[in-house]
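Whiteboard transcription, Tuesday session. T.W. wrote the C-alpha cells on the left side:
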C-alpha cells in the first residue's frame, strides 16, 4: 500500500496552487476541514474556485479565505451567514454561482461516479435555467447540469485509518462523503487516526480508494453558527 499518511495540514495542501478548483466538505460549520482551511490561509494561495454547501461565517471556515481575498469564485447553495461574502458579491469582487442544494449534491455524486452530467427538474423556469439545455422526459422538463471538476476535495471525518478509510459522525456525514469521491485528489483530515484493522468494515462510510492523503487534525473548534438555548 502506498503511504497516504502525512504529518499535518501544511503538508497535505502543499500541491494546491493559485487558480485551482477546490471542494470543501461540511454543512454550515459542521464537519468543515478546519485544519486544511487554516493551512490554505497560511499558504496564501489565491484565485481559487471553491465548491461548498456554504461560505462559512465572517471569521471562520471559508470566511477566513474570503477575508484574505483568496477566493475568486464561490459555488454554493447557501451563503446567508457571511457579511464579507455579501460585501464582495455586491461590489463585484467575487463571482458567485448559486445552486439548488440537491443539484449541488448530485453534481458531486456524478463526478464521483464518473458521469459527465445529470438531468434534474430543480431550477426549471427560474434564473438557474438560463443558458442550460432543457429536455422533456415523460411530460416533465429537466435541466442538464454538468458534473463538477475539482482539482482537490478537502473533507473532515471523525475517524480514519492509514489506508484512508473514513467514518463520519452525525451531521458531519453531509457533503463530506460525496465530495471525497469527487475530487481528483482527496485530502482527509480526521479527529482520530487509527491503525489498520481498527475500523469495523461495516461502519466505513468512505473507502480508502477515494482518499489520497490523510492526517490527524488538531484543535477543532466545531463552532455553532447560531447557538439557541432555552431561557
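and on the right, the sequence the group agreed on:
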Amino acid at each position: 500500500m502506498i503511504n497516504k499518511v502525512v504529518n499535518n495540514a501544511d503538508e497535505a495542501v502543499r500541491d494546491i496552487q493559485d487558480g485551482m478548483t477546490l471542494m470543501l466538505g461540511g454543512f454550515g460549520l459542521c464537519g468543515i476541514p478546519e485544519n486544511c482551511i487554516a493551512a490554505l490561509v497560511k499558504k496564501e494561495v489565491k484565485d481559487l474556485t471553491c465548491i461548498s454547501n456554504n461560505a462559512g461565517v465572517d471569521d471562520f471556515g471559508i470566511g477566513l479565505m474570503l477575508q484574505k481575498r483568496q477566493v475568486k469564485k464561490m459555488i454554493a447553495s447557501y451563503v446567508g451567514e457571511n457579511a464579507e461574502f455579501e460585501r464582495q458579491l455586491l461590489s463585484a469582487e467575487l463571482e458567485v454561482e448559486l445552486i439548488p442544494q440537491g443539484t449541488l449534491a448530485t453534481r458531486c455524486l456524478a463526478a464521483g461516479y464518473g458521469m459527465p452530467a445529470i438531468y434534474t427538474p430543480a431550477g426549471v423556469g427560474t434564473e438557474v435555467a438560463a443558458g442550460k439545455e432543457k429536455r422533456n422526459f415523460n411530460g416533465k422538463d429537466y435541466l442538464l447540469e454538468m458534473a463538477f471538476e475539482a482539482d482537490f476535495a478537502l473533507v473532515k471525518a471523525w475517524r480514519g485509518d492509514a489506508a484512508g478509510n473514513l467514518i463520519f459522525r452525525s451531521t458531519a456525514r453531509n457533503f463530506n462523503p460525496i465530495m471525497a469521491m469527487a475530487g481528483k485528489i482527496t485530502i482527509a483530515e480526521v479527529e482520530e487516526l487509527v491503525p489498520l484493522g481498527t475500523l469495523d468494515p461495516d461502519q466505513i462510510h468512505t473507502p480508502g480508494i477515494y482518499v489520497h492523503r490523510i492526517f490527524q487534525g488538531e484543535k477543532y473548534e466545531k463552532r455553532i453558527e447560531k447557538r439557541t438555548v432555552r431561557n
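Someone added at the bottom: The longest helix spans residues 101-113.
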